[in-house]
Specification:
Layout: H1 2-5, E1 13-16, H2 22-31, E2 37-40, E3 54-57, E4 63-67, H3 72-82, E5 102-108, E6 114-122, E7 126-131, E8 137-141, H4 147-159
Parallel strand pairs: 1-2
Antiparallel strand pairs: 3-4, 5-6, 6-7, 7-8
Length: 160
């Protein structure tokens, strides 16, 4: 599922909780061609009742599944949660964080000043940045961006 839905932002992380060594975990990962992250141990707000066990959270961070990962219910819940998620545009590279219209990147204004930010919203004449430096949300006029960045934004508007 990790590979199948990774272009929609799905990230699977498995936790080994039986106390196996890193070498033993690595061997199992290699033998089973596991294509997702596996951690040694886990802590969190969800109790585990059986092995294997899976939990899934929706885009809003709420628990949407708790149970056996091989069950049809698990697959159905994940498919349903991803149903309305758009595929990430390949030309932007990487994945867009929850709520981001354009992933974090370096932007340049018309005076050559650079900033690292993600775009959380695009309006007709402005974008809303989430700055990497401090996480602040800042509205910014599209006309004050470099020509290259203006073209990128306008391309996003036209795609909608």
């Amino acid at each position: 599922m990790d590979k199948k839905y990774s272009n929609k932002g799905l990230k699977i992380i498995a936790a080994e909780i039986q106390g196996s060594s890193k070498q033993a975990i690595g061997k199992i990962i290699e033998e089973n061609n596991v294509g997702f992250t596996v951690t040694k141990g886990a802590q969190g707000p969800v109790s585990i009742a059986g092995i294997p066990h899976a939990v899934a959270f929706g885009a809003d961070g709420k628990l949407i599944f708790k149970g056996h990962p091989a069950s049809e219910e698990f697959k159905d819940v994940v498919r349903e949660a991803l149903r309305d998620v758009k595929v990430v545009k390949e030309n932007l590279g990487g994945l867009v964080a929850l709520g981001d219209v354009i992933e974090q990147r370096t932007w340049t204004n018309s005076e050559g000043v650079k900033m690292v930010a993600a775009v959380t919203k695009i309006d007709v004449d402005k974008v809303v940045f989430r700055l990497q430096k401090n996480g602040k949300i800042v509205p910014y006029p599209i006309s004050k961006l470099s020509e290259e960045d203006q073209k990128l934004i306008k391309g996003m508007i036209e795609d909608e």
